[in-house]
Amino acid sequence: MISSQQRFYHTGATRSVRFRKEQLLLLRQAAQRLEPEMMDALKQDLNKSEQEAYSTEIGIILNEIRVALRNVRRWSKPKRVRTPLTHIGGSSRIVPEPLGTTLIMGPWNYPLQLMLVPVVSAIAAGNTMVLKPSELAPATSGLLARLIRETFPPEYATVVEGGLETSTELLKRPFDHIFFTGSPAVGRVVMAAAAKSLIPVTLELGGKSPCIVHKDANIELAARRIVFGKWTNAGQTCVAPDYLLVHKEVKTALLNKMSEVIEEFYGREPLQDPDYGKIVNGRHFRRLLDLLDDDVRIVHGGQSDEITGKLAPTILDGVTLESKAMQGEIFGPILPVIVYEGTEEILNTVRAHPKPLALYLFSGSREFQQRIIERIPFGGGCVNDTILHLANPYLPFGGVGTSGIGSYHGEFGFQAFSHYKSILKQSDRFDLPFRYPKSKWGLRMI
Ligand code: NAD
After folding, report:
1. How far apart are CA 126 and CA 122, in angstroms?
2. Is 238 an annotated catalytic residue?
3. Which of 8, 146, 185, 343 is the residue whose CA sits 20 to 30 A from 361?
4. Is residue 204 annotated as a catalytic residue, yes or no?
5. Which GO terms describe its molecular function (predicted)?
6. Which fold has domain 1-206+403-423?
7. pLDDT, tens digit, 9 for 90 and up, residues 308-360
8. Which of 238, 329, 382, 411 is catalytic?
């Protein structure tokens, strides 16, 4: 399979802008045609509502395709750059070229978007691709296999379904690039496997993303936007606010307002809400319940139903850095709350963990916003909002440190799947002697 992709790649067929655009159009048609099946698969795997499935998966894919179609010609054009006087007679260009045969591996939480957005980038940049979706979202994995099979020949794009054994085998193969989205733990496995053959990687990972609410924030707005960002997909979002850092003076007001908003969005009985997401499987369900079995106070939610896999939006108070909920990424509908009074406390809490994928900050003060943005490293984030930075294709999306290596979306995705070849073209009309050994000019220059 990989050799056939390599042969196809080496025919040069994937390189013309026309070919790339045709494939993007085919992908768009397929995504539009299979939209009802996508909604069904996402319902089965994660109980996503149609509105959520469209806004967080299908809509994002279609938007990426639109941006790529509009810009791929410009992105793939060689760019002239300056040539210093020392290189007189020459001209210099940067030529983007595809990497070749690529492997795209994805997680289960946004199982369509996190596979197909990198596919858009890989197509736009002129690569062939092997896709390995997550086995924990089986309905979506099967549908992706069908979508790709019905749209592209296997020597151009193909899906390999499977779990650990399949991934392990794939990671031994001679890909030109690996684009991986998943946990930092598996990111290490991927990078170690890639290191054996020096295969370059893009790693889109996770971490504990703080959400800071300062005393001068618009509390009502903060509550709505935090509840939206935290409990979309039942908190199983890589960029969801992982924990809340709230100023002492506004804590009660914020938590009261958040409780109201949770009821407004998911009703008094969220476990009965047909549109509220479910936890992907029993293992994750039990892992999340274990976080509640600790010396903390449940100030909202806490109800669960193992049969439906639902865990209500839950807020924890009385949390310290030692609490279970503050050890690893939560990746579920539980939000621990920590109170602060000064900036140093914020910095100490965030620095107790590896660099996060996202950070959210609610504050009316420009000076405070600037201080936090400058002093805390994180992949990307929002001021006075949550998670929406990832839906802007003009912003690079990626982590830093253990939350990721490299970025994508829009032109940044094109760059992730391209090599920028540098070319100096020299004149053959004349030849200045001063660079050569024993040249008088050279001596004079010194
Ligand atoms: P995961 O790392 O368990 O799995 C991701 C992929 O790796 C799957 O395709 C899986 O089959 C494969 N895999 C699992 N174990 C493997 C192994 N030992 N060797 C090789 N391959 C293996 O991640 P997940 O549970 O599917 O997703 C949750 C994690 O992903 C969270 O940490 C979350 O923050 C992160 N995430 C990051 C982003 C992002 O864009 N940065 C997006 C979504 C999720």
Report:
1. 6
2. yes
3. 185
4. yes
5. aldehyde dehydrogenase (NAD+) activity
6. Aldehyde Dehydrogenase; Chain A, domain 1 (3.40.605)
7. 999 999 999 999 999 999 999 999 999 999 999 999 999 999 999 999 999 99
8. 238
